[in-house]
Every structure is written in C-alpha cells, then in structure tokens.
Design a protein that fits this description.
- There is one protein chain.
- The chain is an all-alpha fold.
- The protein folds into two domains: 74 residues, Rna Polymerase Sigma Factor, Chain: A; 68 residues, Winged helix-like DNA-binding domain superfamily/Winged helix DNA-binding domain (Arc Repressor Mutant, subunit A).
- Helix content is 65%, strand content 0%.
- It is built from eight helices and no strands.
- Helix 7 crosses helix 8.
- The longest helix has 24 residues.
- It starts with 25 loop residues before the first helix and ends with a helix.
Length: 182
C-alpha cells in the first residue's frame, strides 16, 4: 500500500508517470496545416465547393483515426497523402463524372481571385494541367517538398517525379505563353 505521507522524502514512494509524447489535438493540427491542406484541395478539385468538402473530409478522417505520427513531418506527409486521396475520390465521384455543367456555372470560374492578374493566370494555367503534373508541381513549388519525399508520397520513383516536374513546367510555360498572347 502506497501512502502519501513522506512522499517527497522517500524516492521509493514517489510515483512518476512514464514519459510519453503528446499528440496534438485535431484543432491544433488543423491550425498548423490548414493552409497547406486547403491549397492542395483547391489545386486538385479546381472548385471552391469541392475543395471545402475535401478539406473537411481530410480533417474528419484525421480526427476519427487519430494516426500515430513520429513527428510533425510525418503528420504533414499523412495529411498530404490523405488530401490527395480525398481529392482524387471527389474528382472521380459519379456526380463529377456524370453531371454536365452549364458554361456560366460558378464551378467553372476561377477558385482564387487574388487581384494580381499574373497570379490569377498562373493559377488558371496550373489548373489546366493534368492531375499527375499538377500534383508534383504543387508539392515541389508550393509545399517545398524534395523530390524524394514527393516520390514517397505519390508512391512513384524519383525519376518519374523528375520527369513529371520537367514536363509539367514545359506545359505550364506553354499555357502561360498562350494566356499572355490572348
């Protein structure tokens, strides 16, 4: 039986909790990574409404699963991978593939209107790229991830990522030229 009297005097009666790493709650994770996740969702869905839905789904999944992560970089990688999976699911949903939108539908308008014409045209050009190129360009330039980490996240070889970066840059350059000539 452990008594409280003399607890500070005798080192044998002092109970200490084992050291453990604290997992940040969902609100803290969301505060730290919301901008990154929302940017990925917007880039891949090309629609603010779908991006909002995907954003919520990513953090709901995080909250439900409470994944055990070694550090914040591992948590960031988990969120990126989940965001890419969720946005891919949104893009291939039966609604997205079967519904034909009217040309003046709000979903066809630019997601971001920064006010700066050059940034707007860059986003439009990036949105026009196929998903495989859009993913690697976004992760490399906007999230500052190295090629090796992008390859791991996308489950591709480093050579494939480098090739997609190169081809994506070329396609982006051409799209920007066409936009500046128009």
């Amino acid at each position: 039986m452990i008594t409280t009297e003399g607890k500070g005097d005798d080192p044998m009666t002092t109970l200490e909790a084992p050291a453990r790493t604290e997992t940040p709650d969902t609100a803290e994770v969301m505060r730290r990574h919301k901008q990154m996740v929302y940017a990925i969702c917007c880039t891949h869905t090309r629609c603010r409404g779908d991006a909002d839905d995907a954003f919520q789904e990513v953090f709901l999944t995080y909250h439900r699963k409470q994944p055990v992560c070694r550090d914040d970089e591992h948590r960031k990688a988990w969120l990126i991978r989940t965001a890419l999976t969720v946005t891919r699911r949104v893009a291939t949903s039966s609604w997205s593939t079967r519904v034909v939108l009217a040309p003046d539908d709000a979903r066809n308008q630019a997601v971001f209107e920064v006010g700066d014409k050059q940034q707007d045209s860059l986003f439009q050009a990036l949105s026009s790229l196929p998903e495989t190129y859009r993913s690697v360009i976004h992760l490399f330039y906007f999230e500052d991830l190295p090629v090796a980490q992008i390859a791991t996240l996308l489950e591709q070889s480093q050579g494939a990522v480098k090739t997609r970066l190169s081809r994506g840059r070329d396609m982006l350059r051409e799209a920007m030229k066409e936009d500046s000539n128009a």
